[in-house]
Amino acid sequence: MLRKQKTPVVSVTNHVLIPEHQKLSDKDKQELFATYHITLKDLPKILPTDPAIQPLSVKPGDVVKILRKSPTAGDAIFYRGVVHA
Hints:
The protein has one helix spanning 26-36; strands at 20-23, 45-46, 63-70, 74-82. It is of the alpha+beta class. Strand 3 (63-70) and strand 4 (74-82) form a beta hairpin.
């Protein structure tokens, strides 16, 4: 009989290849929308079940700011809208 092995729980948020993710406040979200004349529907999507944003306690309608390190651009900032699964 084979024994089922337990898989260890690993936090992906501390991995070197996962960029920093931040949840925007409602005020910052509205400023982003006003600055770029966009809505939530215009942003690339991310699911609330994505392992990189699990610690942020996001819900659909929130906006996540992603800070990526780039050797050519320095810090690159991306925004994603949280949508229903």
